[in-house]
Amino acid sequence: QLHYSVPEDREPGFSVGDLAKDLGVEVRSLAARNLRLVSEGGQRHFQVDLAAGVLLLDSRLDREALCGQSSTCSLHLQLVMENPLQLHRVEVDVLDVNDNAPQFPKPEVVLEITEVANPGTRLPLEVAEDPDMGSNSISTYELSPSKHFALSINVRGDGVKMPEIVLEKALDREKVPVHHLTLTALDGGNPVKSGTARVTIHVLDANDNPPVCDPPISKVLLEENVPVGTLVTKLNVTDLDEGPNGDVEYSFKTSNNAPGKFTKLFSLDARTGEIRTKAPLDYEESSAYEIAVRARDKGSPAMEGHCHLRVELIDINDNSPEILLTSVSSPVQEDAAPGTVIALIGVKDSDSGDNGQVHLQIAKELPFKLVSSFKEHFSLVTSAPLDREKAAGYNITVRAVDSGSPQRATQKTFYLRIADVNDNAPNFSSPFDTAHVQENSLPGTSVFSVSASDPDEGSNAKLSYSILDNGMQDVPISTYFRIDQDNGTIYTVRALDYEQDKVFQVPVEVKDAGSPALSSTAVVHVFVLDENDNAPSIVYPSVPKGSAFHQAIPALAEPGYLVTKIVAVDADSGHNAWLSYQLQEPAEALPFQVERRSGEIRLAQALRESEDSHRLVVEVRDNGTPSLSASVVIIISPEENSVQDFSKSLDLPQSSPEDTNLTLYLIISLVSISLV
């Protein structure tokens, strides 16, 4: 909090204080931090020179217009700086200058006094008025020289000096019926200023006892907001005279500090002297009222006395606190550190004492707390880490409660939005997935769609998919598959061959668009499904295309004789590799038969002696859809006296390592298909 003072008569542009120096900041940083001035009350009296870093007067100040008769006059400002957000309070005292001369309510005062008045009789005078305060206010009074009258000055309870003319020497109306005096009011300024009033005193005969107020100065305590018509007091006035000279009438006598104001709030019964309220009284508007009453008898000439009543109001808790949101930083990043300033909050309560003591509260479950900056100003700061994924924003209710009895409270709610930070990596629904694709499918065939989610929002949740070539395959995986970066759908790049590759591991990466970007990976196992695209291959007997295999058998061979065996393989797997053997010609015309599963050709019936060679066309067909086949031509010739051991003469091919591997692949394929 900064404190400055400035005399009230300074011209606009007057330098009030060096803000940059007192705040401990460099002048060139003020503009960058968006230094701005906020005046409490809405009136603009000051401005900030950002180039020089000083507080300047924006308009000429009039202390009397700003603060009236208050003993102190202070203007309160708030300086707000950003990056980081800071609030500084500035209090500027407006110093009084002796720019007003004392002035009496009336330029001429006419008084009356009976000639039988005793020395010591007092004639109250109206006090002069000087808007200045302190030493510049009225200091004393002076009366022009007189043989009969002198000046007496009394000090009222509120410090106001009240002049009275005191009779020092008995009067003789027949000698001097009228006395002319001059009353001068002097202030304590330098140089001294003054004001005068002419005082005319008429000396009257007869009624020689004035009304007397007992006590002449009194004080009454009264609660504010009492009902209209409440009795404030009844004046105690006595007059020793009898008859009309002792019959007193009461009337208000306006005072200089609030001419006529109290007459709007209080009523006076002219006959009984009862003072009652006739309008609501508000402590916040004025805490006390000075009431002057004139008590005048009906004598001839009439005499009067003066009563002074001070009514002091007792404050009651009739004003609720006010909450002022000076600045709110919304949205706030979810990674904001604890202690980050969210809002600057001011409170005020027009009541006084405990009724004006205000406490701020917020809900305990919120990740925020209130920190007192200085009197009636608070900062709302974070007290715990924020997480937008758990709470995207908060409705913060600030409750202000005073210490009065009964308490009064006010609350204000504002919404604080939490800004997203890229603190969550995308997450696949499953780290491992399985897909199947038919071999020989056209390039561009959809294989599988991976799915990932990201709890962040905006660009931090915008996902893109890609395939990683991590060297796990002999050939880059991107030559087989591609992925739609927007929806995660995996497509083939070329036709796949089950006989070449049966399983692929496709590593997929998903990455968000945050800064820095976060990512995660998953693996999709793509199984290639076999298609019947390979015809059976006859490995025995091996004959050139278009040729026939010749086989001799004994002419006297008996039925069931094993002639030869057809051996074939199929590169496909599963049902596509299940082979069956059959003769293309009707079996009734030939004395031979082929075992459907083993491919063995046996003699079905004994050969006739006249029979020559037999031509057999053996077809090998797989079980695929559509079915593929191969055939071989075998010519069987009967020979006399031919005895042959088939198991020795049949030159079956030996299993090569390639055939062994093929058999292993066929077994793996059968197991995979069975699992599917």
TrEMBL record:
The keyword Thylakoid does not apply. The keyword Calcium applies. It is a single-pass type I membrane protein. Keywords: Calcium, Cell adhesion, Cell membrane, Glycoprotein, Membrane, Repeat, Signal, Transmembrane, Transmembrane helix. Signal peptide: none annotated. One of its GO terms (biological process) is homophilic cell adhesion via plasma membrane adhesion molecules. Its main location: membrane. SMART domains: CA. This is Protocadherin gamma-C3. It comes from Leucopsar rothschildi.
